[in-house]
Amino acid sequence: MQPPTRLETFMRDSGLKPAKLARVAYLSRQQLLRIRGGEDDPTRHTMVRLMMACTLILHRKVRMDELFDLTDAGL
């Protein structure tokens, strides 16, 4: 079993509901589930959509490195 992703940890700690985040980020729940579980690598565009959706839902600026480990992403 692999450790939780940053996105998974962030969602849990922030109380974000997967269905709401998927809806606001214009993703399917299945796609979000794969990203949260580390089974799928999001595109940069998807990463930005998730960051913006978190910012809108939480009413605070959310940084990309709060959601993703950018050292492996080549960013």
Q: How does this model look, in words?
A:
With 75 residues, the chain is mainly alpha-helical. The chain has one domain (6-67): 434 Repressor (Amino-terminal Domain) (Orthogonal Bundle). It is built from six helices and no strands. The chain has helices at residues 6-14, 18-24, 29-36, 44-58, 64-67, 70-73. The N and C termini lie far apart (26 Å). The model has no long low-confidence stretch (mean pLDDT 93).
In terms of topology, how is this protein built?
Layout: H1 6-14, H2 18-24, H3 29-36, H4 44-58, H5 64-67, H6 70-73
Summary tags:
0% strand; 434 Repressor (Amino-terminal Domain); 63% helix; 75 residues; mainly alpha
